[in-house]
Amino acid sequence: MARIVAGIGTSHVPSIGRAFDQRKQQDPAWKPLFDAYIAPKSWLAETVKPDVAIVIYNDHGTEFLFDKYPTFALGAADAYPVADEGFGARPLPRIKGDADFSWHLAEALVADEFDLTICQEMALDHGLLVPLPLLWSHAPDWDITVVPLEVNVVQHPLPTGVRCYKLGQALRRAVESYPKDLRVVVVGTGGMSHQLHGKRFGYMNADFDRKWLDCIESDPLALAAMSHQELMREAGAEAVELIMWLIMRGSLSNNIRRVHRSYYAPMTTGMGLVTFDDLGDKAGAGAAE
Amino acid sequence: MSPGRADWGVPDSHIFDGPRSRSGYRINKMCISLTKAANREAFKADEEGYVVKYGLNDEERRAVRERNWLRLTELGGNVYFLMKIGACVGHGLYRLGAQQRGETLDEFLATRNDKGAT
């Protein structure tokens, strides 16, 4: 059967993608950010060896206008184009998908009462693209297959943190009911603290971000219990997208080990990264939380 | 006037909720059209004609013309959508933000931990 072997929380700040394309990896202002991904990339390639990454992200006015706005949307294609977000598309190969696996997840999740929008064509923007080449190789082609799971974190009303956590738990059940032996890593993207509009533009809260990195490991339900209002007040209006990390965390077992953790906040957004090995449920401990 | 729920309890903010999405619909629809290169060229060639096609009213058109990002936000423009106008007219995110804070770009950059990471 398929199983979840690791989880990752990571920011998806678009300036990282731009700096990556401009090869600023050794630039003093960018080096701390890029260096933090070197060990996780090796860990994935040499230890975790996943077949598929389920990447939880949000669209940024690329694929979805507010004419129709899904709360949860699942990609179900064998390939996804790299989107033009208004600057031209980034020089990356198109993303490899697994439509069979996506449809299985869709069937299992809807049967489990999570009513997703299923997308057979979907261009992917920086929400998904930014962390991908920091974690996997793409020359000449990607060494990972991706299932995109898109979440509304832009137009309120948003799904609650608890709902996101429960979707993660359902995602685990859905993965484990797939007969093929796939090694799956779940990546939650977004955040950390930032506000990108109004007089409060540029607001960050490093203390909050560090607390989030602590709790996503040790007490995710405390984070899930936070209201959107509380999250936006503490971490900035656009930081509410951190709820996507809760889907990742909800998909992990009760037996995880943190492998990497980093934090860097040079400009307008806290850039966080955390990785977990999922060792599988402890015997006798029951299901995840 | 700001059409959104002013009492979200987040200071100096314009939370993108239902009322704001309704009022900003035309602006955001025009913005997402700029994800196509041909539309960006059409916008640059005849900005006024382009925004009229999307039904923007006088106030919305004036805010676009004046590059008044705070006003566009108050009118219901969403930041991720407004950035597409910015990309077209050469205003980057930090310039959008500095203006909304009432600062010059240099004044804003001086408030950052490392302004080299742009």
Give the SSE layout.
The complex is a heterodimer of chains A (289) and B (118).
Chain A (H helix, E strand, L loop, with lengths): L2 E8 L3 H8 L9 H5 L2 H11 L3 E6 L14 E4 L3 E2 L14 E2 L2 H13 L5 E3 L6 H4 L2 H4 L9 E7 L9 H16 L6 E7 L16 H13 L1 H5 L3 H8 L7 H8 L5 E9 L6 E8 L11
Parallel strand pairs in A: 1-8, 2-7, 2-8, 3-6
Antiparallel strand pairs in A: 1-10, 3-7, 4-5, 9-10
Helix pairs in contact in A: 4-7, 7-11
Chain B lengths: L17 H6 L1 H9 L3 H9 L1 H7 L4 H8 L3 H6 L4 H11 L3 H9 L3 H5 L9
Helix pairs in contact in B: 2-7, 3-4
- Count of individual beta strands of chain A: 10
Instruction: State Rg of chain A.
Output: 17 Å
What distance lies between the first and last C-alpha atoms of chain B, to the nearest angstrom? 33 Å
CATH class of chain A: Alpha Beta
List SSEs of chain A in N-to-C order: EHHHEEEEHEHHEHEHHHHEE
Number of helices of chain B: 9
Largest sheet of chain B: none
CATH architectural type of chain B:
Orthogonal Bundle
Low-confidence parts of chain A: none
Largest interface, C-beta within 8 A:
A-B, 40 and 49 residues
Mean pLDDT of chain A: 96
* Helical residue percent band of chain A: 25-40%
How would you spell out the order of helices and strands of chain B? Answer: HHHHHHHHH
CATH homologous superfamily classification of chain B: Dioxygenase LigAB, LigA subunit
